[in-house]
Amino acid sequence: MWLNRDMEKLNASAIRSMAAVQSLCSDVVNLGIGEPEYTTPQNIIAAGKQALDDGFTKYTHSAGMPALREAIAEKLRRENGIAASPEEIAVTIGGEEAIAALLLTALNPGDEVIVMDPCFPGHLGTVAVARGTAVKVQLREENGWHLDIDDLKNAITERTRVILYNTPSNPCGAAASREELEGIAQAAMEHDLLVITDEVYEKIIYDGREHISLASLPGMDQRTASVFAFSKTYAMTGWRTGYCVVQNQRFREQFLKVHQNLVSCANAPAQRACIEALNGPQDWVRETVAKYQEARDMVYDGIGRIQGISCVRPEGAFYAMINVSQLGSDMDVAMYLLKNHGVRLIPGSGFGDGGKGYLRLCYACRTETIREALSRMEKGAAELLALR
Ligand SMILES: Cc1ncc(COP(=O)(O)O)c(C=O)c1O
After folding, report:
1. CA dist list (Å): 40 to 88, 95, 146, 282
2. Is 355 near ligand 1, meaning CB less than 6 Å away?
3. What is the spatial distance between Cα 194 and Cα 223, in angstroms, rounded to a whole number?
4. Strands of the chain, DSSP E
């Protein structure tokens, strides 16, 4: 068969496997898939519709519409402390295409990429597609799922080229502190590494914390490729739009060729909607993040009341990693809860070995949905505890 051996080894996402089982169950409360339950704000939808009515249906510049890149440059200056020109920005097909194209640009076969464990499965997948070797750094619940810089340093070898780092984190819910980022920056500078920062949850951060972009730290602008997306901030997952900032000219020139050869450009009418997302009112984002924070509190308090399970208080993104190790394996517990109680969570092992014994819960939904899920989880956990 005309199949590539390396691509045959790619894992089907645990998220999608649970979806297949869900299709066989009725009355399911779905806290599995990682996207907002809300629809895109109306002003953004209207801008996308208007673009279609205007016949804005052709290819754009490969790096994205100039007006969008200008709006992004302005936002980066205002909110991320990144002084990038529009030429240093490329609009991509979501954050995921940016990461894939950056890795394809950076890696030669067998080069090592440091990834977190657990991590967003797309990180492992894109490293594999780019023929890199993923080297995992364990994140631990007892550290609040924060990176221990000594673990990072110990993972670096002479084959390491890239650190792929995500904050706020899917699936762990941790938001990096300045000290953590300074540790990453120091390691990258010492070993001449590129850091790809996955900042798609930059706006979804709680309790007054500040999201810090690594590229804004001294000495990091030339060795950071910062990835952002419209997907999570504006509930635009299906529009497939994101962007990356690459200030290192030599690397950017190569990256732009890879991006162009892969996709030509991002969806044209969606780019017009993205201009409205950035330049229009931001009240929806503020209100929605406040709802996520309320949902976070509800999940954290609710899990704390259920015997046999626990979780660390999430600091950002919209996920909690629920420790279910007292009840059984994460796969068995996820299947039990889905089949017997109609509540869908994702087994942590789908995010790497570091996720074994946990279930990822996505709380980007209405409080009624969470209340119902918690009540079903409480019943399921009591039954599983009684069986042990
Ligand atoms: C950490 C992380 N990075 C990247 C992505 C992909 O983002 P996009 O939908 O913009 O491609 C996701 C989506 O779930 C994610 O959780």
Report:
1. 27, 17, 31, 12
2. no
3. 5
4. 29-30, 89-92, 112-117, 133-138, 160-166, 194-198, 224-229, 242-246, 310-311, 319-323, 343-344, 346-347, 358-362
Signed CA dihedral, 284, 285, 289, 292: sign only: positive
**How far apart are alpha carbons 365 and 233 in whole angstroms?**
14
Q: Which residues contact 205 (CB under 8 A, 6 or more apart)?
A: 168, 175, 211, 289, 315, 316
- Testing ligand 1's pocket by substitution, the residue of 170, 201, 318 carrying the most ligand atoms inside 8 A of its CB is 170
Paired strand residues for 197: 165, 226
DSSP secondary structure string for all residues of 219-263: T-TTSEEEEEESTTTTT-GGG--EEEEE--HHHHHHHHHHHHHHH
Q: Is 229 in contact with 80 (CB distance < 8 Å)?
A: no
What is the per-residue pLDDT across 347-378, written as a single tens digit (0 to 9) for each?
999 999 999 999 999 999 999 999 999 999 99
pTM beyond 0.90, yes or no: yes
Q: Tally the C-alpha atoms within 13 A of residue 386's C-alpha that lie toward its C-beta.
A: 6
* Interval 212-263: pLDDT, tens: 999 999 999 999 999 999 999 999 999 999 999 999 999 999 999 999 999 9
**Best residue among 40, 97, 200, 244 to mutate for probing ligand 1, ranked by most atoms within 8 Å of CB:** 200
Q: How far apart are CA 310 and CA 312, in angstroms?
A: 7
